[in-house]
Write the structure tokens for this entry.
Amino acid sequence: MQLPPYDRTLSPRSGYTRAHWESAADALLAAVEPYAAEGGALYHLPGHRTSWSGRLSDGLEGYARTLLAAAFRRDETVLQRYAEGLAAGAAGVWPRIEDRSQPLVEAASIALALRLTRPLLWDRLDDGVRQRAADWLGGALTAEAWPCNWELFPVTVGGFLQEIGHEPEASRKAVDRGLERIEDWYVGEGWYTDGDGRKFDYYNGWAMHLYPVLHAWLADDSRLLDLYGGRLSRHLEDYARLFGGDGAPMHQGRSLTYRFATTVPLWLGALTGHTPLPPGETRRLASGALKYFLERGAVDSRGLLTLGWHGPDSAVLQDYSGPASPYWASKGFLGLLLPPGHPVWTAAEEPGPAERSDALTAISAPNWLLQSTSSDGVVRLHNHGSEDVRYDPYYTRLAYSTVTEPSSSYDNSVIVGDDPSRTDIEPLGVGEGWVASRHTAGGGARVTTVVLARGAVEVRAHLVAGAEPWTPVRVTGWATEVPPRERIREWGRDGVRAELLPAVGLSGALTGVTGEGDTVFVALARLTGEPEPVPLAETVSVRADGERELTVRWSGGPEVRVRWGDSGVEIVPTARG
């Protein structure tokens, strides 16, 4: 993909300016044009994979998701192409919107694009085309949604149909119903769970925040914008810390093939004025993510987004992923709605949180501890509260990072009796440098885990209860089979080193067995891009003080006592080093 030269006066780190974003959008839109079919109503992108919704729905997905990029780009020539496709699609090419069907998702993208570009596209259509398109979109007002972020698709369609006066009462009800529904899933501090349970991932930004905030902004509804914008601003305080120093987003959760859609909440905060981030930091984080993917094979030789993370990678796909699914990355071009003179485009870049200093950040809503180190830009997420067993391993592992990915060998797990499962996760709290949870493991055993962190070092302590005596237990750390990442070389490093050492109850092979009662297993872990770090064993010492108590002493730092109780875990600082 050919992009303009870097402007180092504005972008000393990512090198990306508005011109780079425009060029990237233009290139992606030009690359999909040869695959238009049925008068431009469908985009059948190449590849052998078909989603569970079928080829027709996949073709609609290709139209709708690339239309989003065109809407943010606002190029009238390109929009005319999509206007022709709209006329053909609404004339009978597109599948009907039915209960829990993929066309409901794509209807939201189409409606949002039409609302954003109304003077350039919708208002120029013939009356008959507008009527047929509105009638087709109207199916979203009553279609049953899956009980998750899908509830916001009728909101998005209803907002547009309200604006054009089509079925105003049904449209209003759809908007109210969806907005009311997500209140059940708001857990505070800017975080939603994506439906019932504890499903925390990027859908918070590219769905749960995007649709309500944009609806409120487009409707000029100050009450709703204060509510949803306030939540977004709070969310961004945590969200900004999920990007590595090289621009990489956190490798956790489902639908990772949407890639730089991760930039959506950053742009959305700047667009609506609901952000705690300086303009230069917003562009640094967003442009860093775009650059990260474009330089690592996200786009193939034809200029098409591949089904994967860097290049093609089936591990990050779901059954609903079709050839055009990656084009929800189009949401990342939301920033182009900001005018060229906006401070986000004109201010010099500022470093993101992972670049500025080492940090341990407690995020209580999902019960996560974020651990970042500025020397290598690596961010680690200790997951003690997010779970969706349908999408294991991208929810159920103990830890994720910006430089590794879940492995088939069950990295970051406690394996009890050869069973790596981790279900029924119960958050037990997160605080200054620590996080804890309890979960069900193999054979129904309950494992209570405490992680303490300092710098790049982790103490991982597991209390195994309810297992038969002499049950084998094995703990694993960061995925060592992941090769050194080229991105780390940007920081002057040769690669990432993953280490795991036994401390209590484990052999050199990181295995042990349970006793007659509760048994404690402790390992030291480190994931680092430092070329010559202090030996891991010299960074911290751990002593077992009975069956349910540990003393952890950091070299040159504090001493901490860990006590396991029947109802939870107690973390007590006892002395300074």
Residues 18-345 form a domain with the Glycosyltransferase fold (CATH 1.50.10.10).
